[in-house]
Amino acid sequence: MGLENPQRISVIDPIGQAIEHVRLMLFKPFDLSKWLIIGFCAWLAQLGRGGGGGGGWKEYGHGGPVMETIKNGILAHLAVIIFVAAIIVPIVIIVAVVLCWLRSRGQFMFVHCVAGNKAEVVVPWNKFARHGNSLFLFRIILGFIGFLVIGIPIAASIFAGFVMCATGFNPAAIIGLTGAIFVVVVVAVLLGLIAKFTTDFVVPIMFLHTESSVAGWKQCLTLMGSHKAQMILYILFQIVISMVIVFIVLAICLIGCCCCCASILLLIPYIGTVILLPFIAFKRAYSLFYIRQFGTQFDVFSVQAT
Predict the structure, then answer these.
(1) Whether residue 153 has pLDDT greater than 90
(2) pLDDT tens track for 188-200
(3) Angstrom distance (rounded) from CA 75 to CA 69
(4) Residue 30's beta-bridge partner residues?
(5) Residue 181 CB-density burial (10 A; 0-12 exposed, 13-18 middle, 19+ buried)
(6) Nearest to 237 by CA among 194, 287, 277
(7) Which of 182, 139, 140 is CA-nearest to residue 157?
(8) Average pLDDT across the chain, whole number
């Protein structure tokens, strides 16, 4: 697919477009049933989303009495800990996989609702089944790779921690712990960026052109390679938008003198999404209007209007 060469890409213009689109979608006219249905798709799309002196070194040279007690407690109940972990870990993995599958299907359902100003569940659920399944497999593979890449440094960190508990200050353990933390942070940031670009750009590309997440990423990489500066600016501006939204939500809660009650409601699954739907829909619409600037081949609104 050939790419157009847009003359001007703005991170500002999509703001007004997204606000107007959300106003028309949710408030003109206000329809509670429509709000609840779109809120369900939005909820599905986000499902599953945490100094002593010399004498001190001598006294605590082997981790001190507190660390010694913790170590002995772990060793004394090691069999129970392993048994409980063997039950809980598989359950957590299964739940995480199911949530990932539902979230992948929900991504396309939410784009369908936002781009077409529609309140539908069954139609996009069936229409974009293959798209969602492909995205699910991509995320599972990426998550597994990320788990391996992050898991090794975390294991090294735990090992370094045990070494320091057993032997006290150990320069090698400190260096290993620092290096492991650095690797974890770098990989976590990289995985976060991949997840962000997948949601904001790859999903719309798949929505328009392909059922394959790999093919969608190829098109996205081509786009990103031709517009590196714009993509960096987009990510930075997304941070600003998120901060502004958080500030607005907190301000509304404080002005309403119901910060505690509002916070509790926002934590309730689905209810919180319905309450925050204008902000969630705005962020989804903003990314769709932004990518539309790169050419008509990325315009989900024109396709939904036909």
Answers:
(1) no
(2) 899 999 999 999 9
(3) 10
(4) 27
(5) middle
(6) 287
(7) 182
(8) 82
Give the residue among 144, 223, 237 at the shortest CA–CA distance from 191: 144
Count of other CB atoms within 10 angstroms of residue 133: 15
Are the C-beta atoms of 75 and 13 separated by less than 8 Å?
no
Report DSSP state, residue 12: S
- DSSP letter, residue 266: H
Average pLDDT rounded to a whole number, residues 150-162: 69
Residue 291 has pLDDT above 90, yes or no: yes
Q: Are 266 and 276 a contacting pair, CB within 8 Å? A: yes
- Helix boundaries (H) for 27-128: 32-45, 54-59, 64-76, 78-116, 122-127
Tokens 């599972």 sit on residue: 140
**Cα dihedral: 100, 202, 190, 41 (round 10):** -40
Q: Which two structure tokens, joined as six digits, stand for 78?
A: 């090691």
Give the C-alpha separation, 268 to 46, whole Å: 13
Q: What are phi and psi of 132, to 5 degrees?
A: -65, -40
| CB 157 within 8 Å of CB 181 | yes
Tokens matching residue 57: 């070194």
